[in-house]
From TrEMBL:
<keyword id="KW-0732">Signal</keyword>
<dbReference type="InterPro" id="IPR046735">
    <property type="entry name" value="PA2779-like"/>
</dbReference>
<keyword id="KW-0812">Transmembrane</keyword>
<dbReference type="Pfam" id="PF20332">
    <property type="entry name" value="DUF6627"/>
</dbReference>
<feature type="signal peptide">
    <location>
        <begin position="1"/>
        <end position="20"/>
    </location>
</feature>
<keyword id="KW-0175">Coiled coil</keyword>
<dbReference type="InterPro" id="IPR016924">
    <property type="entry name" value="UCP029543"/>
</dbReference>
<feature type="coiled-coil region">
    <location>
        <begin position="57"/>
        <end position="84"/>
    </location>
</feature>
<keyword id="KW-1133">Transmembrane helix</keyword>
<keyword id="KW-0472">Membrane</keyword>
<feature type="transmembrane region" description="Helical">
    <location>
        <begin position="98"/>
        <end position="121"/>
    </location>
</feature>
<protein>
    <recommendedName>
        <fullName>PA2779 family protein</fullName>
    </recommendedName>
</protein>
Length: 131
């Protein structure tokens, strides 16, 4: 019973100290103009400039060439986009993860390495099984 009281007292002390950290939230109505402004965070011309800056980078041009796309054709297509499409594409590029597929490859390599070490598979010749 004494141990229970000690645990209860410790729990109450911790919980009462965390009460001071509770923050309140306030919600207010926002106007249509603010919503429209937030949705169109980047105007069409700004988005086109951002996309053209992206396509002018050497690494992007090299990747486009590897994929069989001419950089001039890409700029022409950007110029032909509507303002909404240019803004949407610019947002998608900004939100895209850097590196992309590398994390998956590293994860698969580590799983295969671990299964080799544990003796379940024999994929890599440089590993020795613990079995």
């Amino acid at each position: 019973m004494k141990r229970f009281k000690q645990i209860l007292a410790a729990t109450l002390i911790v919980s009462t100290t965390h009460v001071a950290f509770v923050q309140t939230a306030q919600a207010t109505m926002i106007g249509t103009e603010q919503v429209a402004q937030g949705a169109a965070s980047r105007s069409g011309q700004d988005a086109r400039n951002h996309l053209n800056d992206m396509f002018s980078r050497a690494d992007v041009q090299a990747r486009l060439e590897n994929l069989g796309v001419n950089a001039a054709d890409a700029r022409d297509r950007v110029a032909a986009l509507t303002d909404e499409d240019a803004a949407r594409l610019s947002e998608q590029i900004d939100k895209a993860p850097a590196g992309g597929f590398i994390e998956v490859i590293i994860f698969i390599f580590l799983v295969l390495l671990l299964t080799d070490i544990l003796g379940f598979t024999k994929v890599f010749p440089f590993t020795r099984s613990i079995r």
